[in-house]
Amino acid sequence: MTVKLSKAEKKVKYDKKLCRMLDEYSKVLIALADNVGSNQLQNIRKGLRGDSIVLMGKNTLIRRCIKVHAEKSGNQAYLSLLPLLVGNVGLIFTKGDLKEVSEEVAKYKVGAPARVGLVAPIDVVVPPGNTGLDPSQTSFFQVLNIPTKINKGTVEIITPVELIKKGDKVGSSEAALLAKLGIRPFSYGLVVQSVYEDGSVFSTEVLDLTEDDLIEKFSTGLSMVTSLSLAISYPTLAAAPHMFINAYKNVLAVAIATDYTYPQAEKVKEYLKDPSKFAVFAAPVESVTPAASTAPAAAVEEKKEEPAEESDDNMGFSLFD
């Protein structure tokens, strides 16, 4: 036999439960619970069972419990949750990885019809095609200026139509048409808005950052600190190497412009006086092949005089002269 508790007893029990969670857990996800049904919430609790607990309740009661717990325990860190307790929100206490828990919560979204007066979270577009409605239902389409035609005794939408824009309220005609077409355009579930960890509160976008993103952001911040330090001549660890290099350049420039010198500046001065001393000239070396080496000898042989022809015994006269 269950014993019914009074409102005061329920508040005391809730306060003990919340204080116990504040002592045991150091990580909390603050989730918006608009349009989330009890069955859907129960499924989320089952999916997170193990390292995470979903706690719903009135914001005023949760605020009071956190304040009382902070006074008794002396732990003021959870007071940073108070500004986040606005609207229909719930707390997900977890000991697991924050990103994994957030992704698990996002899986439990269910389709929902477009109710009258509801603010559309997304654009709603009615696709073209056969609606299956008889011609007597064309009045809905005419009111919403949706082009249609009658095809085989049913109403057919000719072109896609943007029925509802994001941020607009759903009217009675739009809601009735979507219900007749069997379209459930919206999906609802717990939406994680903020994350609390060890006294720090940050946006859920931080959970999507990778190591490369963190390195890039750190490098950007480091370069900005370096630039600012150099601009105002304020020494920092990031700007110190650049300051030393710039100072050495100034000292070197003074040594070059005056008679003052030091060992490191002597070579620079010597170079400026006569740069040709530091030029390296390499004489071209031609490769000598066996054929090339024998060519001069052959040329010499060709230049030798040919032997003189023997004198004619007839002293240059023929028999008929």
From TrEMBL:
<dbReference type="InterPro" id="IPR043141">
    <property type="entry name" value="Ribosomal_uL10-like_sf"/>
</dbReference>
<dbReference type="GO" id="GO:0000027">
    <property type="term" value="P:ribosomal large subunit assembly"/>
</dbReference>
<dbReference type="InterPro" id="IPR050323">
    <property type="entry name" value="Ribosomal_protein_uL10"/>
</dbReference>
<feature type="domain" description="Large ribosomal subunit protein uL10-like insertion">
    <location>
        <begin position="114"/>
        <end position="183"/>
    </location>
</feature>
<keyword id="KW-0689">Ribosomal protein</keyword>
<comment type="similarity">
    <text>Belongs to the universal ribosomal protein uL10 family.</text>
</comment>
<dbReference type="GO" id="GO:0022625">
    <property type="term" value="C:cytosolic large ribosomal subunit"/>
</dbReference>
<dbReference type="InterPro" id="IPR001790">
    <property type="entry name" value="Ribosomal_uL10"/>
</dbReference>
<dbReference type="GO" id="GO:0003735">
    <property type="term" value="F:structural constituent of ribosome"/>
</dbReference>
<dbReference type="Pfam" id="PF00428">
    <property type="entry name" value="Ribosomal_60s"/>
</dbReference>
<dbReference type="InterPro" id="IPR040637">
    <property type="entry name" value="Ribosomal_uL10-like_insert"/>
</dbReference>
<feature type="compositionally biased region" description="Low complexity">
    <location>
        <begin position="288"/>
        <end position="299"/>
    </location>
</feature>
<dbReference type="Pfam" id="PF00466">
    <property type="entry name" value="Ribosomal_L10"/>
</dbReference>
<dbReference type="Pfam" id="PF17777">
    <property type="entry name" value="RL10P_insert"/>
</dbReference>
<keyword id="KW-0687">Ribonucleoprotein</keyword>
<dbReference type="GO" id="GO:0070180">
    <property type="term" value="F:large ribosomal subunit rRNA binding"/>
</dbReference>
<dbReference type="InterPro" id="IPR043164">
    <property type="entry name" value="Ribosomal_uL10-like_insert_sf"/>
</dbReference>
<dbReference type="InterPro" id="IPR030670">
    <property type="entry name" value="uL10_eukaryotes"/>
</dbReference>
<dbReference type="GO" id="GO:0002181">
    <property type="term" value="P:cytoplasmic translation"/>
</dbReference>
<comment type="function">
    <text>Ribosomal protein P0 is the functional equivalent of E.coli protein L10.</text>
</comment>
<protein>
    <recommendedName>
        <fullName>60S acidic ribosomal protein P0</fullName>
    </recommendedName>
</protein>
<feature type="region of interest" description="Disordered">
    <location>
        <begin position="288"/>
        <end position="321"/>
    </location>
</feature>
